[in-house]
Specification:
Radius of gyration of chain A: 18 Å
Largest sheet of chain A: 6 strands, mixed
Distance between the termini of chain B: 33 Å
Strand content of chain A: 15-25%
Radius of gyration of chain B: 24 Å
Number of helices of chain B: 13
Pathway (chain B): Amine and polyamine biosynthesis; putrescine biosynthesis via L-ornithine pathway; putrescine from L-ornithine: step 1/1
Number of strands of chain B: 22
Number of helices of chain A: 8
GO cellular component, one term (chain B): cytoplasm
Keywords (chain B): Cytoplasm, Decarboxylase, Lyase, Polyamine biosynthesis, Pyridoxal phosphate
Order of helices and strands of chain A: HHEEEEEHHEHHEHHE
Structural class of chain B: alpha/beta
Cofactor (chain B): pyridoxal 5'-phosphate
Strand content of chain B: 15-25%
Pfam family, one (chain B): Orn_DAP_Arg_deC
Oligomer: heterodimer
Chain lengths: ~230, ~475
């Protein structure tokens, strides 16, 4: 995936400052590209050239980062973020203040991309059922350890950042859930999961003008939210 | 057959001696029914027609009246946005009757209502007044109950997936009773809430339950020793045992076996680990109105055998849907119709899985739509206005000529209320459906959107007072 969306796929010496900044951008790019509705748009063409969408996405991220950094100015006196809005963080379209690569090998061999938006920790679960790995199958979903690990991580983030509350938003492949039974949802109910409505694309049409925003969406996921 | 006669039937089954593996000689024998006797008991209950009779009927005339008044006020031509929204009728009198029925069937068992099932303030307040306690699964639920001036003594924190922050929070609010099922949880509790009264949650056979919990939650009996040992080493306050047989179970043998297993853990804790005698048995939830008589008959039999009166053990339960499912009726408005053929159509209503019918995804419920208003007439009392399957009710297609699928208002493929239903009426836009018995896991799980909690519109009635 990293190479498909135009990020480098060669080992980096992360001790060099320039390299680590590039690495951070790659992580941001990987997380945000999870919301590209058709990931084929990111795959290089037959001449091994990058598609324009990858470039458009990168440019958008750079622009959005400027806004995000302003939002994240922390005022030591008030112990608050200067431009902080309590409702800002729920939206996956907003860039995160922190990005994470999670690895839960007993759950899946795939990397799990995630980001923190103020009070919300957004975690995109890889599609387990498309995977051939022996570790990745439906029974892994019906297992609380991975979820508890994510809930603990979310809770720990709040310990460090001291928000009033912290919520975990899980983005689960819609195909995984619908094509293989909805048992996961029935079990999550017992531990307080809430189903979150997908974005209203009609509203988006009236509020956005840039093309790349239309190519991004959350329709490939069923979104669940947990209090932490 | 009267209740007394049922009691006699239960006590007439001979108890036999069954070896229970245990390393301690004093615990070699437990008096309990073997599988044959247990099966006989269950078969006796299944064949007992008295158990098929529901404890009471819903107050249909009062519910119908409330629906009719509300819909009658809506003028389709001039109404404001929101007036046609779906709404519930909640009969508080039904909850009172259900509580009375609980006390009649299970007088020894203190119910701790599962708040997650329906955290409506009026319901919580009424249940608190009646003397029901509360099972909370999150910080929000604990706060909600405590804000009603209810003592933390009346709360059990029974989330089977507890994050450290939740445990800290329970400690800060003096919520003492809590369940656990693994060693890691014990270490967290030792660190953040060492004085907590702990209930060891054991796994049960939930293979016949519609919502199976124990495959995910609960400690297998062969792992109990490690938990007892750890609790002892950490000096924690082990207060009892809990289990949950899953919701919607059809075979209540699991209840009997779970009580028996709980007794084994009680004995083991005292005799093998020198822990103080356990004081609490939490029999969990999963009770349903329709099968309440049968499940409680099995339960009474098991409790009389393993935890008889005078055994000095407090018995508690975590019922949720039993107390609220039948108290709520949902009405929703037909907002669109797409004809597929002369007698086939897709019907869209203004409520769905992202609203008050969340239970379709999160629970094992299948809401039953019935025609409420069609052709300028109310049809509430026609309880057979629709059917999910023609064969099941031995009705012909001629009686139910219209085949429909029913969808919520979003464009999401998940938002399907019923894939295939047969109707007497050719419903059109502007008609109303009603969905009976929809009080559990519905509005409580409704979507939070744009930071605002979605609240259901509820018309309250009290059929015990009105």
């Amino acid at each position: 995936m990293v190479s498909r969306i135009g990020a480098r796929d060669i080992p980096l010496d992360l001790s060099a400052e320039a390299n680590i900044i590039d690495f951070y951008w790659d992580v941001i790019l990987c997380m945000e590209s999870q919301f590209i509705l058709d990931c084929n748009l990111l795959v290089k063409d037959k001449d091994n050239k990058k598609r324009p969408v990858a470039k458009m996405l990168k440019d958008k991220l750079v622009d959005d980062m400027k806004i995000t950094l302003k939002r994240l100015i922390y005022t030591e006196n008030t112990k608050k973020y200067k431009n902080y809005d309590v409702n800002d963080g729920y939206d996956w379209r907003k860039l995160g203040s922190q990005y994470f690569i999670l690895y839960l090998p007993l759950f899946t061999q795939e990397l799990i991309w995630s980001k923190l938006n103020e009070n919300y920790f957004h975690v995109v679960l890889p599609s387990l059922l498309k995977n051939k790995s022996i570790h990745d199958n439906h029974s892994n979903y019906i297992n609380k350890e991975w979820l508890l690990a994510l809930l603990e991580l979310t809770s720990d983030l709040n310990q460090n950042l001291k928000f009033e509350y912290m919520k975990l938003r899980l983005y689960i492949s819609r195909d995984d859930l619908i094509n293989n039974g909805l048992g996961l949802l029935k079990n999550l109910n017992w531990i307080g999961g809430k189903l979150i409505k997908n974005e209203d694309r009609e509203i988006l049409l009236y509020s956005t003008t840039d093309a790349i925003s239309y190519l991004l969406g959350d329709e490939n996921f069923v979104i669940l939210e947990f209090e932490c | 057959m009267s209740r007394a006669q049922i009691g006699n039937v239960l006590s007439n089954f001979a108890t036999t001696i069954l070896e229970v593996s245990s390393p301690t000689p004093t615990q070699n024998k437990q008096y309990c029914k073997d599988d044959k006797a247990l099966n006989k008991l269950l078969l006796g209950l299944k064949n007992n027609p008295d158990l098929d009779i529901l404890p009471h009927d819903q107050a249909h005339s009062a519910i119908f009246q409330a629906l009719r008044v509300r819909i009658g006020k809506i003028n389709n031509e001039t109404c404001d946005p929101g007036e046609e929204n779906s709404f519930f009728v909640c009969d508080l009198g039904e909850i009172k009757r259900l509580y009375a029925n609980w006390m009649k069937e299970l007088p020894r068992i203190k119910p701790f209502y599962a708040v997650k099932c329906n955290p409506n303030d009026k319901i919580l307040s009424l249940l608190a007044e009646l003397g029901v306690n509360f099972d909370c699964a999150s910080k929000v639920e604990i706060d909600r109950v405590l804000s009603m001036n209810i003592s933390p003594d009346r709360i059990v924190y029974a989330n089977p997936c507890k994050v450290a922050s939740f445990i800290r929070y329970a400690a800060s609010r003096n919520v003492m009773k809590s369940t656990f099922d693994n060693v890691e949880e014990l270490y967290k509790i030792k660190k953040f809430h060492p004085k907590s009264q702990l209930l060891l949650r054991i796994a049960t056979d939930d293979s016949t339950a519609q919502c199976r919990l124990s495959t995910k939650y609960g400690c297998a009996m062969d792992k109990v020793d490690s938990l007892l040992k750890c609790a002892k080493e950490l000096g924690l306050n082990l207060a009892g045992v809990s289990f949950h047989v899953g919701s919607g179970a059809s075979d209540f043998a699991s209840l009997y076996k779970a009580v028996r297993d709980a007794r084994t853990v009680f004995e083991k804790a005292t005799n093998e680990y020198n822990l103080p005698p356990l004081k609490i048995l939490d029999i969990g939830g999963g009770f349903q109105f329709e099968s309440f008589k049968e499940s409680t008959a099995v339960l009474r039999s098991a409790l009389n055998e393993f935890f008889p009166i005078g055994c000095d053990v407090d018995i508690i339960a975590e019922p949720g849907r039993y107390f609220v499912a039948t108290a709520f009726t949902l009405a929703s408005h037909v907002i669109a119709k797409r004809k597929l053929s002369e007698n086939e159509a897709m019907i869209y209503t203004n409520d769905g899985v992202y609203g008050n019918m969340n239970c379709i995804l999160f629970d094992h419920q299948k809401p039953h739509p019935r025609t409420l208003y069609h052709g300028l007439e109310f049809h509430y009392n026609d309880f057979e206005s629709t059917t999910a399957a023609l064969d099941a009710v031995k009705k012909s297609r001629a009686e139910y000529p219209y085949e429909v699928s029913i969808w919520g208002p979003t464009c999401d493929g998940l938002d399907c209320i019923a894939k295939e239903y047969y109707m007497k009426h050719d419903v059109v836009v502007g008609d109303w459906f009603y969905f009976p018995c929809l009080g559990a896991y519905t509005s409580s799980a409704a979507t939070q959107f744009n930071g605002f909690e979605q609240t259901a519109d509820i018309v309250y009635i009290d059929s015990e007072c009105d």
